[in-house]
Amino acid sequence: MRLTLRAQVVLVALVLAVIPLVGYVHVKQIERLLREGQEQALLATARAIATALHDRPQLLELRAGEPASGEMALILRSLARAESRIWIVDRDQRLLALVGDLKKRSASEEPPDLLTRLVHPVAALVLDRPTEDFDDSLPESEIASGPVAASALQGVPARRWRQSPDSRAVILSASHPVWAGDEVVAAVVAEETTNATRSAYNRAMEQVIGLTLIAFVAGALALLLFASRISTRLVRLRDEAEAAIDSQGRVKNLLAGSAARDEIGDLSRSFSTVLGRLGEYNRYLEAMASRLSHELRTPIAVVRSSLENLRLQLLPAEAGVYLGRANDGLKRLDTILTRMSEATRLESLVREHPRERFDARDVVRGAALAHPGKKFEIDVPAAPVWLRGAPELYAQMLDKLVANAVDFAYDGKDAGSEPIRIRLEPRGADAVLTVSNRGPRLPQAMAGKLFESMVSVRARDSGPEPHLGLGLYIVRLIAEFHGGTAQALDREDGSGVVIKVKCPLDSVLST
Amino acid sequence: MARTVAIVEDDAAIRANYADILKKHGYQVSAYGDRKSAAAGFRTRLPDLALLDIGLGDEPDGGFTLCRELRAMSAALPIIFLTARDSDFDLVSGLRMGADDYLTKDASMPQLLARISALFRRADLLRDPPAAEEVLERGLLRLDMKRFHASWRDAPVDLTLTEFWLVHSLARHPGHVKDRDSLMRDAHIVVDDSTITSHVKRIRRKFQAVDGAFNAIDSVYGLGYRWNA
């Protein structure tokens, strides 16, 4: 599976998920502290009331069921906390007084800030929102047999968390005994919902969720952007590097070499250098023929002029034989030189040769004329095949193709019997010229290199003609001049070789 | 009196060999190995014909300079470049300097001698006009076979010796296709197909400079060229 750089970075970004976790733990800690604080405060309230009542035992002698007297209510109200409920039971578990309300009276809440509002929908999924809409009745059982009151009547202050009867809120109750001398005369129970802490907790949680989400998203986005940038640059570098070398291994254009001062910039620059060197090497190889022919010309001229001088001397009869052989050798050298310079000359010729519109059929029809001893099968379409280029060069290319086909047809067993097939046909927007001969197949190892300079697939001793592997190179040069490509293939049945030259048709309509 | 041929060539072996052959063919030869001595020699005495190499010692374009100097001294002096350089660029530059022909060093001695004698013949005729003219006329084309001078619609076309021979070879039998080999034989050259192609291209251009509608030379693809009467 291909794991892109971007995907990898997204995986790495998951590390950032630790931030919300840390925030969560922290908020939990705060909630615990808040609850403890609330318990202590409630207990303190209960104790304060109990102390106040201890000083005024007469207040406890009220009959159960009657509302608390003015003084009692005053004490309770002055000591009670907001949103808390306080009740007092006597030893017989009769409710002596009940003051306060668990529900929040004023609904004035601070308007939530932008962050909270944004996070709200997300937070709602995980947070338990406190509600003021719960059953705040004081169940009988709580008074009679509630463990908090019971514990206080035993003389031990207690606290307890319980659910509201409808389970919509959590209620914290704390109790304290009221002493009269050595005995407990009553118990004070203070109650409060956890809604306040819950709200604080929620707010903190929302903040944490919001902030960490922002941090996470921002971090991940930054990483992703960074990764995208790197991967874009790498992809571009790859595309450029691929585009720089064509299918025949030639360096077409050099990489610009990025100016970026990082590793990718380095990579791009070294690619550029490597391609530059490769290009130089290729040019060196291609210029080899030219340089060789140039360098060889002078020593050959020395040999030739020496032989010509020799011929003017009075020589013994047998010297003529050697003179003849030397001349033959010289002629072969000349042929080699001529072939080499033909390729070089063509390289410069195609650079500035003017292009004209011509009918390729005229060129193809003349192909057989240059090889009168050979059999040809020429197939041209009825309609003109217009190309833009140089008919002379196209003819030269065809000549090389035919010469190549003729040479290889010789290597076959019954080569003479089958004609060389030349076919020109328009195919789509291209004119496809194929020259096909019976003969040995193409060697696999050379596929794609046949059209390079000085590459030959012939056996070493293949006759008196020198073979430099420049013929198909010339074919390629001329095909490229016409905006086309050359390709060598085996015949489908393996009985020979097909060379295919595809050139774009001239799109201008003939008038 | 024997004619003097000057050879300016930096390779001692080639210089000596050419000098020997030319001497055997009855020419007087003055051979120079570098531009300075050649220029000094020319100032003392102008040769009747000059064979110049382009690269002379450490002067890659010494031959061009020499050619310009010679042309300045004499407008009629035949000059042939004989060099290892075969690029179109050098060829065109050489001819633009006023040389009469351009040969690469793979040219054989007979080819060189054919040029030398042809140029001498022309030089002679320029000095004293002949009684009888030998002229080939083909429609608008007129070839003066003695002076190696071509004209089209009575306007002179400035051809090199090689180009003149090529035009003559084609125009002698209008309508007949001349293949590259016979063209090379007639023009005393041995070159590759591309060189013939660029020669013909250059000839066409020279005629077109005189007459924009010139199209007397037909390409017969795969075979050669044909003069259209």
What does this protein structure show overall?
Chain A is built from 12 helices and 12 strands. The model of chain A has no long low-confidence stretch (mean pLDDT 78). Chain A is rod-shaped and about 165 Å long. In chain A, helix 2 runs antiparallel to helix 7. Chain B has 229 residues and is of the alpha/beta class. In chain B, the strands form 3 sheets. Chain B has a 5-stranded parallel β-sheet, with helices on both faces. Chain B starts with a strand and ends with a strand. The model of chain B has no long low-confidence stretch (mean pLDDT 86). Classes of the chains: A alpha+beta (511), B alpha/beta (229). Chains A and B meet through helix 8, helix 9, helix 10 and helix 11 of A and helix 1 and helix 8 of B.
What's a concise summary of this model?
Chain A is α+β, with helices and mostly antiparallel strands and 511 residues long. Chain A has helices at 5-13, 18-55, 70-79, 114-126, 140-145, 147-153, 195-244, 263-311, 319-352, 360-365, 391-411, 471-481, and strands at residues 84-90, 95-100, 158-163, 170-180, 183-193, 356-359, 376-379, 386-389, 420-427, 430-438, 485-490, 496-504. A five-stranded antiparallel sheet of chain A has the order 2-1-5-4-3, sandwiched between helices. A five-stranded mixed sheet of chain A has the order 7-9-10-12-11. In chain A, strands 6-8 form a two-stranded antiparallel ribbon.
